[in-house]
Amino acid sequence: MFKTCIIGASGYTGAELALLLQQHSQFDLAALYVSENSHDAHKNIGDLHGFLYEQIDLPLLPLKESDMLALAEEMDAIFLATPHEASHEWMDKLAGKKAVIFDLSGAFRLKDKSVFAQYYGFENTQSAWLQQAVYGLADWHQEQIKQAALVAVPGCYPTASLTALKPLFNAKLLDSQHRPIINAISGVSGAGRKAALNSSFTEVSLQAYGVLGHRHQPEISNYLGTEVIFTPHLGNFKRGILATITVKVAAGVSAEQINQAYQQAYAGNPIVRLRKSWPKIDDVAQTPFCDLFWKFDSQSGYLVITSAIDNLLKGAASQAVQCANLRFGFASQLGLVN
Amino acid sequence: MFKTCIIGASGYTGAELALLLQQHSQFDLAALYVSENSHDAHKNIGDLHGFLYEQIDLPLLPLKESDMLALAEEMDAIFLATPHEASHEWMDKLAGKKAVIFDLSGAFRLKDKSVFAQYYGFENTQSAWLQQAVYGLADWHQEQIKQAALVAVPGCYPTASLTALKPLFNAKLLDSQHRPIINAISGVSGAGRKAALNSSFTEVSLQAYGVLGHRHQPEISNYLGTEVIFTPHLGNFKRGILATITVKVAAGVSAEQINQAYQQAYAGNPIVRLRKSWPKIDDVAQTPFCDLFWKFDSQSGYLVITSAIDNLLKGAASQAVQCANLRFGFASQLGLVN
Amino acid sequence: MFKTCIIGASGYTGAELALLLQQHSQFDLAALYVSENSHDAHKNIGDLHGFLYEQIDLPLLPLKESDMLALAEEMDAIFLATPHEASHEWMDKLAGKKAVIFDLSGAFRLKDKSVFAQYYGFENTQSAWLQQAVYGLADWHQEQIKQAALVAVPGCYPTASLTALKPLFNAKLLDSQHRPIINAISGVSGAGRKAALNSSFTEVSLQAYGVLGHRHQPEISNYLGTEVIFTPHLGNFKRGILATITVKVAAGVSAEQINQAYQQAYAGNPIVRLRKSWPKIDDVAQTPFCDLFWKFDSQSGYLVITSAIDNLLKGAASQAVQCANLRFGFASQLGLVN
Amino acid sequence: MFKTCIIGASGYTGAELALLLQQHSQFDLAALYVSENSHDAHKNIGDLHGFLYEQIDLPLLPLKESDMLALAEEMDAIFLATPHEASHEWMDKLAGKKAVIFDLSGAFRLKDKSVFAQYYGFENTQSAWLQQAVYGLADWHQEQIKQAALVAVPGCYPTASLTALKPLFNAKLLDSQHRPIINAISGVSGAGRKAALNSSFTEVSLQAYGVLGHRHQPEISNYLGTEVIFTPHLGNFKRGILATITVKVAAGVSAEQINQAYQQAYAGNPIVRLRKSWPKIDDVAQTPFCDLFWKFDSQSGYLVITSAIDNLLKGAASQAVQCANLRFGFASQLGLVN
């Protein structure tokens, strides 16, 4: 059993991750932490998240910076379900010690520092860890993840988008003159567990946001290898992302080549499911899966793919567990798929 | 045309009321106010509430206490869609002048001052206005409303509950040993337009609250004339209240007597609709109606009634307009029902 | 007062239309019809649609084909809220008489007969009426509508899409090598009032459908003037459509030119609202508006527009009323906007 | 490993049960059946229920009556997730052989035959099996379940209601002059997987139904031991039941006695969770738990309890697994709670 803890366990992602680790056969969930001045400090996690009531008997301990070094030497794995700024600030106290770090924030996902000022609103000064961090797209970067000291677990939208697009791009099937157009709709849990007018029940109604300026656009473009147009939306549901992606394929590409690209990428992968019909959000909510389906119009050369995930699981917690599984020598899906 | 304004126009009730007054043939909506330090001050109401975009061209003016007296002398009617504490604090500056006051808060609904300390968390020191205030249950208190200087517009739950129960109680059909049991479910807009964790989209899920201690329990009991058990719930919808009320009738009461009580109370009333099947929330959402339907088990003597309203309209804004209509000599439903 | 009736009044669109006509100052709603063998025949419309209870006191009369001629000579306007096949079958009995016909089905929206076999599943044999029918995109085709004997009221998705795209195409701002990519999400009422597994509450969850083969794709392309890629989705809400449209503009096009195109098309139009922020479904649900907002990335030349309407109103019933207003000499928005 | 199969596996309950059995360490899910003329016959269950895609590789076999005997001799346990009529019709072909039968329909829940004609619309002629059937309220009837040849798994509403009420009744805390008043709201999945207008997405809106005449009223009364008033509602959510129960306690009963009654009944029970705050539907959806919380007004003697379950799990599939666990000698919660 590998000893693990979660920092930032009071949020939705932290709660899901806590349950996954608690039920995992190879990881021991030893402790839950929140920031020192959190008003949730010392509460039991089951009192914040009713589904965990009596299931995890751990308090949310306030974590002092002065205790981070000891923690990093005690744990085998530390999961950070913290705000970007907190991950950024704490990383050099936590990383590079005994514990492997799995950071679910966006603070270490990109190598290019300029992105952080523009899209995240803070300057990233952790140059060394930015360079060392491995992007934890678990179905693609297995070899790097197995060696990583710090895994930057991908964002929810990039996970849905890259899983759909990488097979096509890598097989050189995309027309280079047309950017892939990604329209994605996320459930409100993606906004985190907090009081905010724009995520209050009465205010939420299907709407675009962050158009042509969302921080996941450079993340997708960078790990795909080509520019994309990414338009996120907030939907009136709690969990899940549906990404509908329209691409133009290169001249002469056939449906069979598209099919082969997906088969090659995912045949036998228990997490990515190549469906026989258009996936719904409900098919993947509360699951670790990414469901894909596509239709191609050979006359026009346009191809439409939809990709569905649970934003809190495949878009965060279960992908972090996939990464941890890989890093500690287990099958990617251990503890996630029966 | 009577000149009107709304104080507290940035919230959901204020926005609905603004549209009703704007479209009304006899009232002129002259101005919208918010409290002096509101961060919505000087915004256009259509920028806060998308459905009003380009429909009402009025800014939300910050209201200074020093301007209240002049306002009360200028207007024919002032509608207060303000917090209880604000209505309480400002009432002696506004009431008793030219303008008739229609207060949608709870600050003047009850005569018994002890209720305010226990249920509202503040001491009500406006004794004179407490005494003068008329309870604006528009389908029942028409004569008093016509004379009022200050109308305390009822709460949403009391409106749904009293409309269902008053015909039975007044006709002496209720068994006095069994309290009416009121289970009511409200949409989230009832919590107001604000950032709060417990009304955030991801947190909302059908749940009881305020059990055996909600401030609407004394309001219902007082205006019904007998004690009730009132259990409110928050539902996962935006607008509307469904109250399901179970009573035991007095020995020997027949279905025909129950029917007569409702017919006598509401036949010909265009606002209260005696339905032929169980009303749904959607039947009354965005409408000024209160829909009633009931079933009686003569063997056991138990009677179940459901009552459905839109909490923002019949439970607030449209009932306020009913009161204003009555006060200025019009039919109760003017501007509400075609 | 012009005398009107609705055929196919039992569905959601028919019910909305009935209320609009009932409240209209210039149209008299004289009768409601359903097909001869409808199981809703002889019911009161308020018993099917609770929001109309006691509001419209008209039964749903079964319409015999033998009575159609007399009806067409009696009425000034007949609204068909019928299935495509029924409108197709009945048109030569109804059109060309005294009554102007407003057909809300898809049976007469396109001139090209081959579309019907491919996309609608029936052969359109009404050649004469196909030629005479005027496409009722009310904010664009006002002059033709004023003369029409038969108005084919547009589909919901085409209304949302064309309102967003026509200003750009007509101003020659679009790059001709990139098809506009339209992703649209409709509420479930778009599927009509009927029992069907895929629109049952438990089954509905955000999902694409009809990809690269929906019947509204040729309708949009035809009335825009260029091919588009249209991907519809079913969303977990009752009413409304949000269309998110991504286009590449021609080289050198500026934000100012885009702005001018929209201003020129819609400045002063009370139905199409050029918003200052991204519209939500809730801003337009239960309203006759089409709300537009856009963002342009001058570096890449990509432009994203979202367009929001109520599918039952601007996408059907209120646009039919706009058409009738125009046809009978009134302002387009009469009875729709205060 | 005990060999099991499910008859009626195409519905929502069958699908949940299939996943529970598939993941169970002691039961082997050997086959899935549907009725002989089902249009789902020969489909893979993952094509009907997207969450099961690639998770259960079993077709839905059409079951002939002529094969039932052999099946009953081959299996250790047969789960019937069938309509009441089908369970009734097939029981003497299935029960009394090698397999223990777990019937999730209502056909064998009550001993009194007259109930079936009145509430279920068919005459129950299976007198012998009616007598032998054990009511599978798993947290209460453990000893009988351990011996049963046929377990009638309780209805969803009775499970929520009885779990809340039995501790009070058994401890003689209830006033006998006041019937317990049960108001319960169910998600739409309770209506089953089928096309029906009243469960279509657009029609569903919070509403009472089956008032004073629902078939679960006699089931609750019978297994509680006293008459109740039960009012079910349909809510606008997919899964879960919240029952709000108002009772009057006997004179002199204290909060401490109430607390003791619940502690005695459920302390240490991992399925029934005595909460510290009002449970939400979301706390129990997708879980096997029944969550309880209560508040008592000692002055009036009224007590309000809410009880929350997932209708498809604790109200059907997971309670069936609890029963099977007990019957085959395992802990009630095996395979359900970590």
Structural features, described:
4 copies of one chain form a homotetramer. Chain A is α/β, with parallel strands linked by helices and 338 residues long. Chain A folds into 2 domains: 2-132, NAD(P)-binding Rossmann-like Domain (Rossmann fold); 156-311, Dihydrodipicolinate Reductase, domain 2, CATH 3.30.360. Chain A is 32% helix and 22% strand. The first copy, chain A, has 12 helices and 14 strands. In chain A, the strands form 2 sheets. Chain A has a 7-stranded parallel beta sheet with strand order 3-2-1-4-5-7-6, sandwiched between helices. A 7-stranded mixed beta sheet of chain A has the order 9-10-8-11-14-13-12. In chain A, helix 1 crosses helix 12 (313-327). The longest helix of chain A has 15 residues, at 156-170. Chain A is globular, with a radius of gyration of 20 Å. The two termini of chain A are 19 Å apart. The mean pLDDT of chain A is 97. Chains in contact: A-B, A-C, A-D, B-C, B-D, C-D. Chains A, B, C, D: Keywords: Amino-acid biosynthesis, Arginine biosynthesis, Cytoplasm, NADP, Oxidoreductase. Chains A, B, C, D: It comes from Paraglaciecola hydrolytica. Chains A, B, C, D: It is an enzyme of class 1 (oxidoreductase).
